[in-house]
Amino acid sequence: MNPVGSDGYEHHPLLDTHVRDIASRGEGVLVAVTHELHSHGTVRIAHIRPASGVEWTTAADNIQAARP
After folding, report:
1. pLDDT for 68 beyond 70
2. pLDDT, position 12
3. Residue 15: Cβ-neighbour burial (10 angstroms; 0-12, 13-18, 19+)
């Protein structure tokens, strides 16, 4: 796991790059990785913004670098 800043955002190496969500096969720019606390532990959430501008989230483990 990557370091998490005092603001709660993870310093992910793919931030601001074009990524693919392997679960939905959607592509866009990774704009943030946040951590959510759940009863079973912490879940890392990736926030992706496609060209349409409508962001979606997925598990951070579901993202990979994509070719633009």
Report:
1. no
2. 93
3. middle
